[in-house]
Design goal:
This protein is an alpha+beta fold. Helices cover 30% and strands 26% of the residues. A hairpin with a 3-residue loop joins strand 8 (225-229) and strand 9 (233-237).
């Protein structure tokens, strides 16, 4: 359907979102420093490495892998890939996310042991960092959450056969199901709207109508939140993620 006014999508290209990440340097029980293993259910995510060094461990139905992360590297993965960031020294990343930043707004399930995945309330009690707590307390909670997730991750990685990973996938899908209507609305306002805008512009150009070019805009942003405790590290967040 062609709109009456020259169309334009105001968000970032393709309705992606970005954040800046300083990966945790907290050592875990296995001696490895880094973040909290988790997966996304509907969004791909990309890493653009801007500083330091490290790697990302991944676990999929095809197996376990390790991808080095060095400045200039771009690494991405699709829904279902469990990923754990490893910080070998001052690892800093720009994260690019599908669907207006949905990966940081709910589309993530942490690899907690199965007893924490039984229902949304139990899961939330083990994963939500209290926003109004002092910073030291938030850091303690985020680190404890990471360590608990590593217990579940280790069991999945070392499992004999695919059944435990498949069970985790089913539990993750059940946990997010109550929020799917909210996610669908976010997708419609973002990626679907961005794609529809391109289709409308192509239709206009095919008719020889270039009027939408006169509606061009320029936008710039600085982080609206700095240093938030995320799953993998301290996050600088932009409002374009909404």
């Amino acid at each position: 359907m062609v709109s009456a006014e020259p169309p334009g999508f105001p968000g970032l290209p393709g309705a992606v979102a970005v954040s800046r990440l300083r990966v945790y340097d907290w050592p875990a029980a296995d001696g490895v420093c880094g973040g909290t293993p988790h997966l996304h259910l509907t969004c791909s995510e990309a890493y653009v490495v801007t500083g330091g060094r490290g790697s990302v461990q991944t676990l999929t139905a095809s197996g376990y892998g390790v991808t080095p992360l060095v400045p200039g590297a771009v690494v991405w993965f699709t829904p279902g890939a469990i990923h754990r960031l490893v910080n070998d020294g001052d690892l800093r990343i720009t994260v690019i996310m599908q669907n207006n930043g949905l990966p940081e707004a709910g589309d993530a399930v942490i690899t907690l042991p199965p007893e924490y995945l039984t229902d949304p309330g139990t899961y939330a009690a083990a994963t939500v960092v209290p926003a109004d707590a002092p910073e030291e307390e938030r850091a303690r909670f985020a680190r404890a959450r990471r360590d608990l997730a590593l217990e579940g991750y280790g069991a999945l990685r070392d499992a004999d056969g695919p059944a435990p990973l498949a069970a985790f996938h089913r539990a993750a899908a059940a946990l997010v199901r109550p929020r799917l209507a909210e996610w669908r609305d976010r997708w419609r306002r973002g990626a679907e709207a961005a794609a529809a805008t391109t289709g409308d512009q192509l239709d206009r150009l095919e008719r020889g109508d270039a009027s939408h070019l006169a509606a061009a805009i320029v936008r710039a942003e600085r982080p609206s939140v700095r240093g938030r405790f995320g799953m993998c590290g301290r996050l600088d967040v932009y409002e374009t993620a909404d």
